Amino acid sequence: KRTLEKYKDKRISEKEYFQTMLNLKDENEDLKDLIVKYPKNIKNNGTARAFYGILKENIEKNLSENLVKEGEADYLNNNENNLEEDIADLSLDLCEKIKSQVKVDWHKNIDVKNNMAQEIDDALYDFHLDKNITLDMMTLDIMINKILEIAKERF
Predict the structure, then answer these.
(1) Which residues contact 68 (CB under 8 A, 6 or more apart)?
(2) Closest Cα to residue 87, out of 76, 100, 77?
(3) 53-95: per-residue pLDDT in tens?
(4) What is the rounded distance in angstroms from the CA atom of residue 116 to the CA atom of residue 146?
């Protein structure tokens, strides 16, 4: 705020203002890394991180609200740290699947949006089968809709 006031009052040059803003951005990124720890493979991919947040929150909530079945318990007990990495991999996969569907004015094209939703649904279903984790229909719908909302903003 003080930097902006200095710039408006012409006490600093555009170059100094710009450099200060870059420094603040870098400091903010450093603080964000302290607050939220992302797996290394998505650390520099903002869209994948956004997908990761949605997926991780909903998958963990779904697991805690529902009785964990025997196979799920085995996966979670044996892969406690890998769940985050698996969700990060899923996030990257979703980025690629959505990118492959993007075309001019896709936001207005119901067929493209339906194809994207189907790609997301298929990826989540494969994740559910591969990791032996049950995801209820409501959770799936929430994740699909939120991921599509993010995709509209990012692609």
Answers:
(1) 76
(2) 76
(3) 999 999 988 877 665 554 455 555 555 558 899 999 999 999 9
(4) 12
The pLDDT tens digits for 84-128 are 999 999 999 999 999 998 988 888 899 999 999 999 999 999 998
Kindly report the CA angle at 103 between 127 and 120, in degrees rounded to 5?
Answer: 15
Amino acid type, 128: H
Residue 17 CB coordination number (10 Å): 16
Q: How far is 32 from 45, CA to CA, in rounded Å?
A: 14
**For the chain, how many residues are written?**
155
d(CA 140, CA 124) in angstroms, rounded, equals 8
d(CA 65, CA 56): 14
Q: Is residue 76 within 8 Å of residue 132, measured between CB atoms? A: no
How far is Cα 98 from Cα 153, in angstroms, rounded to an integer?
12
Please count the CA atoms within 13 angstroms of the CA of 13 that sit on its side-chain side: 3
Cα 96 to chain centroid distance, Å, stands at: 13
- Considering the entire predicted model, what is its pTM? 0.69
